[in-house]
Design goal:
single chain, globular
Length: 279
């Protein structure tokens, strides 16, 4: 009986895995085509035989893509922007979320709902006035418009962290207050260490969002030395658009860090979402 039950469970899981794989296949096809093209030669692409498997395999496409644009410079600029945005967005959002979740004040609910309402406002609606503001400040042509706003909290992260902070036991904070601890001490030494999964989730969101950002660098950067990978890839398309293997190789290199980051942080990401308001 136990063997029959185990076989039934195995068959169900196998069937579920097959169904999920088939449902994911349409989303994976563009990625498979990109990787296939990255390893093809120009002659095979021009033949247009529709073959997925490259023959022969051209690994030199990656070296040519790296040599066509200053990839290392763009990578350094992108990583620096990602780190600054992660620190700014997660840190400032955690402070605001702690205030909403743990410090009662009269305008708490109206301010919280007003903040949530800003999430429904599309970025295109504020693009022109924000651009005019940064140009008036003299920040056009610098990375400041891409970094400074992250230090003023992100509504989505504030919402997630507020829900998480509300799940922490109030008795813990009360005992700390009786021992003479202030709110900053409670926040830094009690709440933050217990919120690693939620903070990691926000950090992952912010990293991916900054890594994939194209519109921000397009609007504010005019010096090639400050270009990010996303914007630099567009420049590669403009200069080498007919060289599809090299373009797909550059695209594969651009997407690889995000894929690896998600694979390594998947458990933390899922645990953080499941313990916040995202569930």
């Amino acid at each position: 009986m136990t063997g029959d039950a185990s076989s039934t469970v195995f068959v169900k899981r196998l069937g579920l895995t097959v169904v999920v794989a088939l449902l994911c296949l349409p989303a994976l096809l563009p990625t498979l085509w990109m990787l296939s093209t990255a390893f093809k030669g120009d002659a095979q692409i021009l033949r247009g035989d529709g073959s997925i498997l490259p023959h022969p395999v051209e690994t030199a496409n990656f070296a040519k893509a790296l040599a066509a644009v200053p990839f290392a410079l763009y990578l350094r600029n992108t990583v620096l922007l990602c780190l600054l945005n992660v620190v700014g967005a997660v840190g400032s959002s955690a402070v605001v979320a702690y205030g909403f979740a743990r410090i009662p004040f009269r305008a708490s609910k109206p301010l919280f709902f007003t903040m949530l309402a800003t999430m429904a406002l599309p970025g295109q609606a504020t693009m022109v006035p924000v651009f005019a503001l940064f140009r008036w400040l003299g920040w056009y042509g610098t990375s400041l418009p891409l970094v400074v706003p992250s230090f003023f909290a992100a509504p989505f992260y504030v919402f997630l962290l507020t829900q998480f902070f509300r799940t922490l036991p109030e008795e813990m904070a009360e005992n700390a207050r009786l021992d003479g601890a202030g709110e900053w001490t409670i926040f830094l030494r009690l709440c933050l260490p217990l919120s690693k999964s939620a903070l990691a989730t926000c950090a992952l969101f912010q990293f991916v969002d900054t890594w994939n950002d194209f519109l921000g660098p397009l609007l504010y950067l005019d010096d090639p030395k400050t270009y990010t990978l996303g914007y630099g890839l567009q420049q590669f398309l403009g200069s080498f658009g007919s060289h599809w293997p090299q373009l797909m190789a550059a695209t594969a290199l651009f997407t690889l860090p995000v894929v690896l980051l998600f694979l390594f942080a998947q458990k933390t990401f899922v645990r953080g979402i499941s313990t916040t308001g995202g569930k």
